[in-house]
């Protein structure tokens, strides 16, 4: 097994963490990857997304022993006890076995036992196999390329949506202006406005009475 320089992989993929996510995760079963989550195990067997837990934190979980209740110096049971330890579920430990290149034991006890044995059997504690780091680097590069394409598509989609909304806004504005012109009786802006009345031969102006279709002349 090979353990890279601390932070080397994080530095190599740090530019992805500030990238806006537009693409769906890329995968190399049982691993998946996005710039936000990093590498994680996500299959129905493991019931959820499980990122790699650090070797130090795993060792704390694997070697935890219940200290029992807390007492005062006078030997009295304290009213306020420390928070109760909450162990991780079985699928978490199974996923960690996958992350560290071990057999994915399906029982919590067997998975914890395998992880602890691997930790204590190495001078450097739990180490990630080079082939898994290689998978992570490849998925990081693949996701970056996929995300660039998805981001361009997203920008184009937003542009078309904006143009469509602007077109609808202008259409509504024209309709409002035509309606207003019709209500105000302004033939210069109304498409269906009536023509201006002209003086007749004898100097009178004709008008049409609304309640009578006949035309009258008025002085």
Quick tags:
disordered N terminus; 6 helices; two-stranded antiparallel ribbon; single chain; 219 residues; 43% helix; alpha+beta; 4-stranded antiparallel β-sheet; 6 strands
Compact summary:
With 219 residues, the chain is α+β, with helices and mostly antiparallel strands. The chain has helices at 8-12, 14-17, 55-62, 90-99, 108-120, 130-184, and strands spanning 26-28, 31-34, 38-41, 50-51, 205-208, 215-218. 43% of the residues lie in helices and 10% in strands.
Please explain how this structure is put together:
The chain is of the alpha+beta class and 219 residues long. Helices cover 43% and strands 10% of the residues. The chain has six helices and six strands, in the order ααββββααααββ. The protein has helices spanning 8-12, 14-17, 55-62, 90-99, 108-120, 130-184, and strands spanning 26-28, 31-34, 38-41, 50-51, 205-208, 215-218. The strands form two sheets. The protein has a four-stranded antiparallel β-sheet with strand order 1-2-3-4, with helices on one face. The protein has a two-stranded antiparallel ribbon with strand order 5-6. α3 packs across α5 (108-120) and α4 (90-99) runs parallel beside α5. The longest helix has 55 residues, at 130-184. Mean pLDDT is 80; it is low at 1-18 and 202-210.
**How large, in whole angstroms, is the Cα Rg?**
38 Å
Please count the helical segments: 6
Give a count of the beta strands, DSSP E runs of length 2 or more.
6
Strand order of the largest sheet: 1-2-3-4
Mean pLDDT: 80
Uncertain parts? 1-18, 202-210
Helices and strands, in N-to-C order? HHEEEEHHHHEE
